[in-house]
Amino acid sequence: MYADLVGRAQNGDLTAFAWLAEPLYPQLHRVAYSIMGDQGAAEDATQQAMVRVWRNLPQLRDPERFEAWCFQSLVNECRREWRRRKRWQRDSAGGELPECAAPDPYGAVDDREALERAFERLSLEQRTVLVLFHYADMSHEAIADALGIAVGTARSRLHRAHGAMRAALEADARPVTPDHITHEVAR
Question: What is the CATH number of domain 113-187?
Fold first, then answer.
C-alpha cells in the first residue's frame, strides 16, 4: 500500500502525495523546530522540504525510503535556512531574530533553560543528530539513512554531539567566583 501511494505520487498524483505527506508533516515540523529553535524558520524549512520532495519524487528509486528521504530533505532545508538566517542576522542592522517560542510554564525551568543554552552552543550537525535520535526517536540506522551517511558515522556524530552537549552543560554549571573575574579583568 505504502509503495503503491509513493508510485502514484511519483506519477503526479497529488492526492496520493497528500496521503503520504499529511501524517508526516507534523513530525517533520517538530524536528525542524527542535533543530532550528525558531518557529518561523522551522515552518519555512518544513514547507521547502515538502516542496522539494514533491518536485524530486520521480527520482526516488526505493519507495520504502520515502520517509527517510523526507527527513533527509528536511535536514538539508534546515541547513539552507540556518545559513540564510545567519546571513540575514549579519546583514541586518544589529537586530536579532525574534524569539517565537513561549517559555515552558511547567517542569524544572532552570534545567530547561540550561539545556536550551547548551543546545544553542552546538553546531547545526550536532543539533540535528541529537534531535533525530532523542526527539524523533530514530535508530542509528534511520539517522544514517536520513542524513545519507554510514551507520558508523551516525554513531560517531551522535557520540561527539553528546560530548559537546555535556561539555556545554558543565561549562554553564561552573560557578563564577570573584577570583575568576579578577583574573580576567587583570589580563
Answer: 1.10.10.10
